[in-house]
Amino acid sequence: MFMKNLSTTYDLAPKEIHMTTRKIFASLAVTLLSLGSTAHAANLPFNSAIATFGQTSPGTFLAPQMIDGITSADNGWAIFRNTGAVDDTFSERALFTLATPLLAGPQILVFTIVQNHRQSHVLETFRLTGTTAGAPSLNSVQDDPVINSALSTVAGTVLTANGALITVTGTLQDIDTYTITATFNLATPLTGFFLDAIDTNGDLTASGGPGRQPINGNFVINEFSVTAVPEPGTWVLMLGGLAVVAAGARRRRVI
To answer: Fewest CB atoms less than 10 Å from the CB: which of 112, 130, 131, 238?
Structure first.
């Protein structure tokens, strides 16, 4: 029926029909391979986002604002305590609990950290990990992934991974988005993720926070999302299915 429709609609000769079919499936194959390497499924849904501390003055910047789908400048998570101390930004931890656990075994994940607040409120030192705890808490055991790549949208900004720890150096601009691709391979399902914002200066200087903001070391994460990239084997199976369909269409034409 597929071949008949092509012939009727486009008035194609049998040879042209075969070539058209091949082009269609070749195009689909290229598209699927491209998706498998550069894109991914919809964001994984979270039940909640909590943190060891959230800024309430000036402004309100709490952990749940990282997963509400809003990327505007003044909606996100920040950590400035505003107590009047010389240093008011410390190491803090955020936990994102998945609505549905991810299956055990290899999982390629893409983390996107959107930072749109202005005035260089971007992360400088942080750690991304997962957890398999049945009911994740801020004190749950952390599982390190293998960091495959870590990129910035700002030319000249460099993200360097040392295990699960990522440090940011180089060009500093008002806003930035980090994209980190990581692989987990755990024996039990992933139930959540941790983002540890780390003050490597030991809280000794005014600018010594986890962020690159030059005055107080603060940051604002406007949105945090995670997507899962299908394993290469999944795409191979899909392409194999396309090949079977194409072969079936060709056989019907011959018969």
So the answer is: 112
